[in-house]
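Self-study notes.
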Amino acid sequence: MTRILLTGANGQVGEELRQTLTPLGSVTAIDRTSWDLAQPEAILSIIEEVQPTLIVNAAAYTAVDKAESEPELALLVNGKAPGILAAAAEKTGAGLIHISTDYVFDGNNSRPYLESDPTNPLGEYGKSKLAGEEAIRSTCPNHMIIRTAWVYGVRGKGNFVKTMLRLGAQREELRVVTDQIGAPTWARDLAIAIAQLAPQLSADTAGTYHYTNSGVCSWYDFAIAIFEEAKTLGFPLQVQRVTPIATEEYPTPATRPPFSVLSLRKTSALLGGPPPYWRHSLRKMLAELQQTQP
């Protein structure tokens, strides 16, 4: 029987993984109340107790801008903690699936990033996530690192979709960056993919993978789609205009990669086909979100 230890269980991906991993075996789900990521060694006693055959790490420090002023904490959570998980997995013979990010790249490509492309993170968040990847690779051969991007979900608090809906209900005009290109990822689809990949983890398949929804857009395109789909569903919106702006007009502490489209070819081969198209998944997420509204 597969014994799965899921970390970060209350995050927007972790909440979905609780559901998608359950058919694979017994799932022990822990969150920050069980494991303080600032004290990563505390996970060892939990691993000793659970004796997992698979560890799925959805826990992370995800405050991209805040990481610029808290680089030590970001590195502790995103760099050191995955290394400790990897060492424990290797010691106990467990497999490890770890979620990483497009921020390990600098965004200067003109074609989708392959898993083998050189990394060059622009900010502290990306550097901390790359450190976690490197710690896993050097410690636990039986792993899958799954890089994703632009994640949103019904259960997420600060994701782009929910932010747009909140602002769109309050304002008539919004300004959204149009020169950052990527692919949105519904947390549900990512969690389903991880559950499909988990049983395939072996010496032959171990390594790094990319997963986002299919298709490409800018943040501006994404915002337009959110409002179009939300209006169709009857969400209360005041927004009349969405104005495209350049990144330089919306300065942030952390520099974002301008192009972070990830190649899906390698992952699609294992999954038996490409991920769902991003707008189709957005529509499903919004319909589900509407059902949760009071």
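Second protein, same conventions, sequence then structure:
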Amino acid sequence: MNTQKVQNVCYIIYFVCWFFVNSDAMTRQQLKNSGKLMKKSCMPKNDVTEEDVGQIEQGKFIETRNVMCYVACVYSMTQVVKNNKLSYDAVIKQVDVMFPPEMRDAVKAAAAHCKDIAKKYKDICEVSYWTAKCMYDYDSANFVFP
């Protein structure tokens, strides 16, 4: 993907996030729809297919480097990766901004339960992947991932 297309996708995601910061949080369906933009951007960057990543939200985590880095790409686009590290504080902030009120406490509980995963791995791809898997395992009903 060329630089201009990446910038355009980033602007779109920024606008979507800005819009929802300045309005009510998204519904679960709106979260999923906004995730499609991230998915479309992150899949080619990490050489993954729909078969590789299309069922993460249903708990199908394929343990390959490309899938791990796809998860890290999505987390980066949601601005929860700071200085190449997954930021628990940024996760909580994004949950407050983007998630519907009825999901916030559950997603925050999953994030709190899984925040120490980052201590086990140095690589952002591994940290992101295992954190996402932990959050799914902790509360699959409230797990949303593109």
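Instructor comment on the second fold: The two ends are 19 Å apart (CA to CA).
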